[in-house]
Amino acid sequence: MNDSLNLDKFKQQIADMYSQRSSNYDDEGDFHPSIAHHLVEYANIQTGQKVLDIATGTGLVAIEAAQLVGSNGRVVGVDISTGMLDMANTKAKAAGLDNIEFKLADAETLDFPDSSFDTILCSSALILLTDIPKALRRWHQFLKVGGLIGFHGFAETAFITGVILGKVARKHGIGLNFHGITGTQEKCSTLLTDAGFTDIEIKSAQYGSYISLERAKNIWAISLKHPLSSSLRQLSPEQLIQAKADYDAELEALVTDKGIWDDVTIFFTFGRKGTNNKSLL
Ligand SMILES: C[S@@+](CC[C@H](N)C(=O)[O-])C[C@H]1O[C@@H](n2cnc3c(N)ncnc32)[C@H](O)[C@@H]1O
């Protein structure tokens, strides 16, 4: 599907999964649009700026940014999913935007000239990257001095079904920690400082809600198919039956009269490329 990118198996699975989801992605609810909007809002994008939207998907961030930078600015959105990029292109055309460009590219092997962008944003995608610290160091080079980077991380408590899945996986000797790397504000801050960014600012937001036990139990099947859970699929059929029973039991213990609290704490994290920054690559 993405022949020109030569993706590894994990990334090809991710690209295919999002291409399959692409035509419905914008109708899945307000979750991704709301996060993307807040990321753009907090970034305080100005007219004339050059903006890079990493893992742009259907262009939620890129299109809003293109409207803000105006005709003197420019926005580039990159993604590995052709389906998502097709949607992004269609939307940008419909919005009459000619200051936006979408490219099929892997966020981890991007190759822009140094100091190309005023703002680099990455919404709802960081966790899908293979080597986040290395990617951040690479993106640092693409920013102009004084430029802003913004992403959001999920807290280690976020998505109760993922938290329980991780707990059950560990019981079966499998390490699954979906949001370990961005799990706290300190971890988000460290990610940016280690990549050479300064002036770190973090805004925490709660996107959680109560979900039914039935829905939480059904998420098992979806989670098991996700490329990030591939290690779980190595369990034997008997182990998987036991793991599912453990998962259900853990969820049942969390039920309240409102359902199960599904925490979705998000850390909107921003940093700047300071002066005298040497490349950390
Ligand atoms: C949950 S969607 C988020 C899309 C968009 N940023 C948003 O806020 O709605 C995740 C996106 O990340 C893309 N993605 C995952 N890994 C990537 C990579 N290594 N390079 C570029 N895009 C990637 C997927 O193809 C998908 O479009």
Automatic annotation (TrEMBL):
One annotated GO molecular function: methyltransferase activity
Superkingdom of source: Bacteria
Gene3D superfamilies the record matches: Vaccinia Virus protein VP39
One Pfam family linked to the record: Methyltransf_25
Keyword Methyltransferase appears in the UniProt entry: yes
Keywords attached to this entry: Methyltransferase, Transferase
InterPro entries: Methyltransf_25, SAM-dependent_MTases_sf, UbiE/COQ5_MeTrFase
UniProt record, GO biological process: methylation
Residue span, Methyltransferase domain: 51-147
Keyword Methyltransferase tagged: yes
Full protein name: Methyltransferase
Source organism: Aliterella atlantica CENA595
